[in-house]
Amino acid sequence: MFAPRPTSVLLRLGVVSSLTVLLLAQQASPPDPDVRNPDIKIGVPLVLVPVTVTDKRGQFMDGLGAGDFVVLDEGVKQKVRLDTSDTVLAPISLVIAIQSSGISQPVLAKVRKVGGMIQPLVTGERGYVAVLQFDNEVRTIQDFTRDGNRMRGAFESVIARTLKTARLIDAVAEGVDMLATRPEQSRRVMLVFSESRDRGSLLKTPAVIEKAQRAGVSIYIATYSAHATAWTAKPEDNPPLPMGPDFIGGIVELARMGKANDAELFAKATGGRHLSFATLKGLEESIARTGEELHSQYLLSFSPAESSNKGFHKIVVSVPAMANVVIRARPGYWP
Questions:
Q1: DSSP-assigned beta bridge partners for residue 50
Q2: Residue 60 carries which DSSP code?
Q3: Residue spans in the chain of domains classed CATH 3.40.50.410
Q4: How many distinct helices (H) and strands (E) make up the chain?
Q5: Of 181, 161, 89, which Cα lies nearest the Cα of 127?
Q6: Which phi and psi angles does 23 have, rounded to 5°?
Q7: Residue 178 CB contacts under 8 Å (≥ 6 apart), including other chains
Q8: Which of 11, 21, 37, 142 has a CA-to-CA distance to 239 between 20 and 30 Å?
Q9: Are 314 and 31 in contact (CB under 8 A)?
Q10: Are 53 and 65 in contact (CB under 8 A)?
Q11: Confidence tier at 265 by pLDDT (50, 70, 90)
């Protein structure tokens, strides 16, 4: 299991937002001039870009400065600022969505044990957490709270209901709507435990991706195979077997596996990450890895120039002096 990052790294928090202004505290009391980038002025709308930088082994790269990064907005190089712990102290607002269909019963036995990990490893004491569960409908089982006991209680209360329906896309949309109500200076993050493909949502993936991008939500999804996890579960945690062979169900399942991987699409389009697990240890490592990444990101910001493009703006981030690093950032923003 991964250990949490040192305090100095934990404080390097970014704000994931499509287009926002500087922190309210900065507006109330004008800060000293920013000697690192005097061209960025208070009150000017900023595009904020959390960036994860790792080596090829997945180890986070510390110690980079603003001058190490190049950010292109629609191919045009931007003057960027790097915020650190002395300029941004942004709490995390986190919505956790848990698939609770009957086929997920072996996984739910594992999920119920990890509620106590969320606050110390992901949000910290200043962050807020809400919990959803979804099958043939999406239900809020815990509104935003900083109470660790409530978080654990929400996880422990998740029960399996319908056998196969799992409206993943609809659950992400509901989580994004909840996060859109959170203060702009908070980091808006979703963490989803589910299969990688949807089972019966009313909404479509592209529309929900745009909604998440406009709300500045980063989506992290830890997925599992309902069939694989059944082999790692205790017999009493597995759902009851159907009466006789389910030939029609098998055909439907094969067809579903040929559809787009919704988890991968959500993660890539929002600057989040798609992880996977099959065991309790794997689930714990997915949570720890998500928290470690959120607290290891660099926050780059820039003031966009006037543009005739009123649609989606593509962002490309690079570190020219370090050719072998792996960089992950939001792919763009809506003005």
A1: 299
A2: B
A3: 92-294
A4: 11, 14
A5: 89
A6: -60, 145
A7: 95, 130, 140, 144
A8: 142
A9: no
A10: no
A11: very high
Place of tokens 């980091």: 187
- Two tokens at 240? 């009851």
171 Cβ contact partners less than 8 Å away, ≥ 6 residues apart: 97, 99, 132, 134, 138, 192, 194, 201
Distance of CA 107 to the CA centre of its chain: 20
Angle at 149 between CA 147 and CA 154, to 5 degrees: 100
Cα→Cα distances 101→225, 263, 266, 335, Å: 13, 17, 21, 38
| CA–CA dist 50, 48 (Å, integer) | 7
Q: For residue range 128-173, what is the model confidence (pLDDT) as tens digits?
A: 999 999 999 999 999 999 999 999 999 999 998 887 899 999 999 9
CATH number of 92-294: 3.40.50.410
Tokens 């202004």 correspond to 21
Two structure tokens written together for 321: 């002096």
Q: β-strand 298-302 against 217-223: which pairing, if any?
A: unpaired
C-alpha 149 chain-centroid distance: 23
- For the record, the structure tokens of 133 come out as 């569960």
Compute, in degrees rounded to 10, the torsion defined by CA atoms 181, 10, 265, 230.
-100
Q: For the whole model, what pTM was predicted?
A: 0.78
